[in-house]
Amino acid sequence: MNTELKEKFGLFTAIALVVGIVIGSGVFFKAEKVLNATGGDLPLGILAWIIGGLIMIACAYTFAVMATRYQYVNGIVDYAEAAMGSTYGYYVGWFMALIYYPTLTSVLAWVSARYTCVLFGFDITGGACMTISCFFLIASFALNTLSPVISGKFQVATTIIKLIPLFLMAIIGTIFGLKSGMTTYNFTTVVTPVDTSQGLFTAVVATAFAYEGWIVATSINAELKDAKKNLPIALVCGTFIIMAVYILYYVGLAGTVTNEVMMAGGEAGAKLAFENLFTSVGGTLIFVFVIISCLGTLNGLMLGCTRGIYSVASRKQGPAPEILGQVDPVTNMPVNSSVVGLLLCGFWLVFFFGANLADPKWFGFFNFDSSELPIVSIYGLYIPIFVMLMKKEKDLSPFKRFFMPALALLGCVFMIIAACFSHGWSVPAYLIVFALFMLVGGFFRRKRETA
């Protein structure tokens, strides 16, 4: 079988991937948590969205600078390898393949199912929701594996669809709220006073889930036409669009329902907000668009998940690289890698249910939130990459070599500190699991070196 991926995506598809992978679930899913973390203090919540967005933009810009210099198979892995060497690149690729991609993909399948259950009135924590989650995972896997071109078109279509409810809420919700006084009320009323620093840290970590995913777009740089030019444009443009849309949506939402309702209702509160603006029928139709947008995000993350272990195997590393590094000559997809990615998604979906939804929870000390902590850990992995960029790339301008990487570094450190405040003892529990996965990766690396 062939082991090379062909260039098949254009600039618009790349921007759609950046925007489509990120927008679609987190801004809906985490709006409730941001409000609860800040006690319903809307200006503090907006500040959290701004901080999270600026961290994303700084990191994306720094990777965009690196994208003009490196172009191989899987963006983040190549950048790690170019900056820190093959060993570091291997462990970053291993983390992305076994933890990062499948945890986020499994959570997105559950989020999509959760909104579907809200639409049809099913229990969002029961068996129906988990069954729908599994169906969405398998369907997304099949679409990405059997027809990546159709998957790309689906990504573009869902990106356009998902912007409809966001823009409608941002524009009409804000106008409605200013006329009715709801926006003023929500901006000036704090539901439950909280410690400002604690609330801000917790809220910023929550926004990290909503903002995460843009790095997945770097996984297609070998499949992107004129990648050195188009990938930086896609990263920078896409991340700016995302932050603007999120903040405008958040303000629009404040014009339709009270913070108390959103804090208590979550997804049901968001559905009520749309119904208040567009009547029951119109609100339900737009809520369907929200579900489609979540599925678009799932599709984009599955794109990275199916290529996760391939990025390791293509370097002749990890378990069975001869098998997992194969590319199907008909679909031009790493099918064996895709199957492993699906199995990992299933594993992490079971973990997410047992650690966060089951009553009582299944894993004792190891019950941690797999929707946030893997994201924070990747910010930690960015730090040495940014440091080495400042050290090695001497021909860059001071702005590109020092200023923006330094901002990205500060953002990464802020995110790590915020996670410690927000998640407490869940952080060491997660780090133990993280270390175990890295030890397994080290075993396979040593086995290949001694073979």
Automatic annotation (TrEMBL):
Molecular function in Gene Ontology: L-amino acid transmembrane transporter activity
UniProt source species: Aminipila butyrica
Compartments where located: Membrane
Ranges that cross the membrane: 9-29, 44-67, 88-112, 124-144, 156-178, 198-221, 233-257, 277-298, 339-358, 373-390, 402-421, 427-444
Keywords: Membrane, Transmembrane, Transmembrane helix
Keyword rRNA processing: no
InterPro entries: AA/rel_permease1, AminoAcid_Transporter
GO CC entries: membrane
Membrane topology, from the record: Multi-pass membrane protein
One Pfam family this sequence matches: AA_permease_2
Name this protein carries in UniProt: Amino acid permease
Main location: membrane
